[in-house]
Amino acid sequence: MADFHQNGIITTLHNLSHRSIEDLEYDLQHFSHFRPMGLILPSLFSELEGDALPKIVNQLKEVSYLSEIVIGLDRADREQYFHACEFFSELPQHHRILWNEGPRLQALDKELGELGVSPKELGKGRNVWYCMGYTLATGRSESIALHDCDIVTYDRGLLARLLYPVAHPQFNYEFCKGYYARVADGKMNGRVSRLLVTPLIRALKRTLGPNEYLDFMDSFRYPLAGEFSFRKDVLTDIRIPSDWGLEIGVLSEVYRNYANNRLCQVDIADTYDHKHQDLSLNDAEAGLSKMSIDINKALFRKLATYGQTFTSETFRSLKATYFRIALDFVETYNNDAKMNGLVLDTHSEEKAIEMFAQNIMTAGQRFLEAPMERPFIPSWNRVVSAMPDVFDRLIQAVEDDRAEFLSQKG
C-alpha cells in the first residue's frame, strides 16, 4: 500500500486501496457523457512487431469509455502503413492513424516548414505534436491521455487511473502526470530519473538558491514518465521540445500556463517496465547519454527564461554539487533495493553518474554556445494563425491515407 504523504507543491493522488479496474471504468463510463475521452499512442512501426504493443491493443479492446484513439506511426513505408491499419483494426473504438512518413502528411509538413512552424527534428516530440494537432482538429475528446507503446507490464487499469483525474466532472485538474515504481525482474530501473534528474534538481537548488520552478519540478515522483493526461484546452498553446527533453518540456509548459492547484500526479501502476536505452558511455549522440544532454539543456533553458544567468563557472560548480548528491543517492537506492530483495549494481550506477556529470558540462557548453537555439515546436495556436485551414487539411490527409488502404484492401 502506498503512503498518503503530500510532497511538494502539487497534488499527489495515491493508490491507497487498489480499487478494482471495473469500479474505475464504471465511473469513467459515466464521466464520458460529460467529458468525452481520447487516447494518443505515439508509435514506431517496429513496436507493432514487438511483445508490448499487441498486448496493449488487446487490453484497449476492453475499454468502452474512449471516444477515439489517435495513433502516430513513425518509420513506416506504404506497405507497413497498410499493415498498421490491419493491426489496429481490432480496436472497436473510433481510431485513426497518422502515417507520418506518408506523402500527404509529408507535403503538409513541408508547407508548415516553409511557414516556419513545423517540427525541426524527427522523433517522439514531432509524433506527439501532430497527434495533439489532430486531436484538436477532430474535437471528439475533452479529456485525453497519452502513453507509450512499449510498456511490457501494461494493463488497462493504468489508463483508467491516468484519465480519472482529468475526466472527473468535479475535479478541476487540467493536467495529470503518471508515476510508478520502475521495478521489474527483481531490479530497480529508471536510472535517468533516479540518478540524473532528481539529484540535478537538488544540485541546482543548492547552487542557484531558492527557486519555485525547481520546487515544482522536484514535486514529481517520476518526472520522466511518458504517461500523462490533460484537458483539450492544454493543447492549444503548449510548446513541446522535439528532442529527449519532451517530458521536462511538457512539465515546464504546464508550470508556465497553470496554477499549481490545476496540476496533479497519480500512481498508475504497481510495477512498470518498458524498452531500455543503452547507456552509450562513448557516444554523446545516442542512448542515455544524448537523453541526459537534452534533459540538462531543457532545464537550463527554462531557468534562463526566469532570469537565471549561467556561466562556465556555474556549470563547474553544478557538476561538483551534482556528483556528490548523486553518489549519496546510490547508497540510498542500494539500501532500498536490499530491503526489498532487489538487485542494484552500484558499480554500474556510479558509471552512469560519472557520465551524467560529464554531460552536465557538455550540455552547459552547448547551451552557452547556442543561446538562440529554439528546440520547441510552435504551439498549435500559432500554427492555425499561420495556416488557418491546417486542421481541415490534417484531417483530410489522414482520411485520404485511410481511403487508399481501404481501396487496396477491397
TrEMBL record:
InterPro entries per UniProt: Nucleotide-diphossugar_trans
Keywords (A to Z) from UniProt: Transferase
Any GO molecular function: transferase activity
Domain of life: Bacteria
Official protein name in the record: Glycosyl transferase
